[in-house]
Design a protein that fits this description.
heterodimer, A: alpha+beta, 7-stranded mixed sheet, 5-stranded antiparallel sheet, 12 helices, 12 strands, 16% strand, disordered C terminus, B: alpha/beta, 5-stranded parallel sheet, 22% strand
Amino acid sequence: MTPRLRKIVTWAGAFAAIALVTALGSLAGLNPSAVGFAYLIVVLFASMWGGLLLGTIASIVATLCYNFFFFPPLYTLTIAEPANWFALAAFLVASVTVSRLVIAARTQAERAEQRRSELETLYGLSIDLFTATNRIGALGEAASRALTLLGARAGGLVLFDGSPYRQNVISWSGDKPDEIEDLIAGVGRHKEPLELPSPLGRDAYLPLIVGGRTTGALVARGTEASRQALESASRLVALAVERERFIEEKAHIQGLRESDALKTSLLRAISHDLTTPLTAITIHIEALKRKAASDPALLEAVSGIAGETSRLRRRIDNLLAMARLEAGKAKPRREPTPPADLFRAVRENLPLVDQSRPVKVTVDDDCPDLNVDPSLVLEILVNLIENAHRVSPAGEAIEIVARRHPMDAAQVRLEVLDRGPGVPPGVADSNGNVVASATVDIAQRGLGLEIARSLAAANGGTIAITPRPGGGTVARVDLPAALLPVAEQHA
Amino acid sequence: MSVAPVVLLVDDDPAIRDSLSNELRALGYTTTTATDGRDGLRSFETRAPDLVLTDLAMPRSDGFELISAIRATSRTPIIVLSVRGNDADKIRALDLGADDFVTKPFSVPELLARIRAQLRRTSSASATTLHFEDLTIDLERRRVTQGSREIRLTPTEYALLELLASNAGKPMFMEHIIARVWRDAPGTTPDTVRVHMSSLRKKIEPDPSSPRYIVTEPWVGYRFIAEPLS
């Protein structure tokens, strides 16, 4: 039944009921006061079903009929007895009042019913949002379900990707005219809900705001739901979106943490699993050396194994130093380190170099200490000196020098000088620094230089490879100095 | 030494345990081995070794437990076999009372030098004069000579040298040095120690570019070297 037809039926019914009461009353010769009550009942139902207008009109029509058919002189609208005037007036007042009361009660009941169903919807929405969802898609489904229950005929959930102009439609139902995007952006910018009349009735645009930030908008087109219900729904959805973001972030952080833990344990495993057999081999070599003392050929072979083993050991040390930096586990742990101590440690680490050729060490008297991670700078120097050793002719000395930086008091310059073939022409720039390092150096100088470079960078330093006057190469490492407070008095 | 010193070797890896034990025996030490901290403590109690060599990471009962247990009753030298990259473990072991460490893979001559330094330190605990190559420290007269030449040190420098030299071979923590030499005087910082140490080193080192006696021990402090390698 369409509302229009329903209205006609209700009105016709009301007048028919008045006619029926009038006919019954006059034909059966009922007592006028009983007829008055019957009219009152008709007015009551007319108000309940037909609203205020029908109720009022029914009251007046009933009053006229009451007068016309039941108060003497009958069949005129005049009244003989003054008491009957009073009765008729009382009837009119009573019927209008009854009709108003009934209507007020009905409106109230309807409003309560609407609030109840809205609350139910919001309750359902909050359960949907906070229990079932774990992904943005589920958010969209929950939002659509809520919009349907709030009586929206179209609409959906839109999230902003950083700005209200980059909109990400999470869910949408019904048509979506072009201007909606601008309306949503406007709501996102002004952070105020917007209600507009539209072909569908009334459209509501609700920004999703958490902590002053607008993360998206909820659009309900053609809804009759109260503003309060719509705003509650948008607050719930906003919280759920925020929660979703937190969950994602947390998963990301946890993932990072786990991969870090994995790297660390891998590192531990490698350092243990590689160094243990290497240690055993080193010990066996020592025993072999002792037993081979009387056999020069065997001794030479054993020394060869020893050399290769210590090279392997240094590769592993390199690898571990790099991996530690990569894993971010060991940020360089800097501490004031005298260059002489570093040079000493390097020579202990490279006994074969130290034994097979002169190594000339110079530390200038006024050279400050370095502010570096000693174990990483040790790797740098070991790599550079190994390179120098490999390219230098037998018997040529390698020089290691530490001095204050000529231009920068906050730096120390370490140099490794060799008499090898030097930097190939064409790979150095005007400052003498090697360019195209990645290709040339790896081929010419091995992986060691690349590792040294990244270790130097981790310590806040740089490496430059320059030609050495008179032939050969200077590997120059500039590193931060540890500046001591002005020396205290000491005799 | 007329009687071979007894070395207790604690390591869970049989390859290292057996090869190192053989090597030490071939070089004149008596060895006894254990596979973990608990086993090691039992051997320590029954064999009363002159020196303990222990790994840190071991199943069941690790090296840290063993060090604490031994230090509760004894001052027997302990050398830790640590793994490269685990500086924190190394420092913790020293904190618990270990005397020194070598980093795997270590060279045997290096380890032997460390063992000798520790044995020598314990046997000369009551000596009144310390000799290191051409450096002589007379503890009673507080005199330091290099060859026939007397080295003039300030009282602070002498105190530093005496502390380090009488603990030769043992890495000394910066905090420990500040406590012993400066008696925790307010305002004493590691930089204070560095300043004095640097001038001490200039006076006693034959070649300051290649330190012979005193070296820094990264993240710990300083170490006096009893005998140089090679």
